[in-house]
């Protein structure tokens, strides 16, 4: 499942540089995660790095984008050009 950033985001800028897939960008008011690029860091790290650095814990799983670890790995392989 992809991650999402909630309205509790304080625009602290720490999550964006941590994303290995460049899925995080500044939105109109808060940071946003592109679900097409979010692999929850599968293929890169054991844990989603954005969640690890977020000081306000505003990056939960997106209930509308449920994906298995296998699907996330497939997305990672496609994004990285290894598929």
From TrEMBL:
It comes from the Bacteria. Keywords: 4Fe-4S, Iron, Iron-sulfur, Metal-binding. It holds the Pfam family Fer4_7. PROSITE patterns: 4FE4S_FER_1, 4FE4S_FER_2. Residues 1-29, 31-64 form the 4Fe-4S ferredoxin-type domain. Coiled coil: none annotated. This is YfhL family 4Fe-4S dicluster ferredoxin. It comes from Chitiniphilus purpureus.
